[in-house]
Amino acid sequence: MNTPPPITVVNVGYRSTNYWVVSAGTSRLLVDIGWPGTLGTLKAHLARVGIPLCEIRYALATHYHIDHAGLAEELKREGVQLLVLEVQLEAIPIMKTWTKPGDHYLDITEHGNIIISFEQSRLLLGQMGIAGEILHTPGHTDHCVSLVLDNGFAFTGDLPAEAYAFDNPVALASWQRLRAKGATSIYPAHGPVWPIGEAPSTPSS
Ligand SMILES: [Zn+2]
After folding, report:
1. Distance CA 53, CA 94 (A)
2. What is the mean pLDDT of residues 57-66?
3. CA 169 / ligand 1 centre spacing (Å)
4. What is the pTM of this model?
5. Which CATH number do you get for residue 151?
């Protein structure tokens, strides 16, 4: 049996937001999706790191706020499949209430979305060559999710950093869940990567 290619992580973010491309070889997942109306910018950032958009099989929004999922429908039109957790469904139509006409936001349709439960996430990721799972990690919003890889990398979106979440028991419970799954390196949606257990330089969003 062939050993799967090692996991690589590249940040293609802009405007103070990280968009992580998680890859097993050329099998790629985008974690957090881009501001509305910024497809050209995302494409430019992908081109700069040599990642063809057509290699991105799925896009996952940690939550449906415009800096994290605003570009979802445009990416779907480019052939990227939108991975939606069941807990996120109700939040999708609400996101557009945070957009202004000048944002050029394209409404996310149900068409083509891949809707899964947390229990199904490991199988789907495994089919991509990515060992890990998606967890429910509320604390910033109720519908926030995190991707945790078996190598310890955790993509936590806007989950308030543990060191600053003393008044947020929901977030602290999410951190416990992440620790139980072996999270060691935290890849947030804003700011630099940090080792779990240490305080990042900023409390994040
Ligand atoms: Zn954010």
Report:
1. 27
2. 97
3. 20
4. 0.95
5. 3.60.15.10
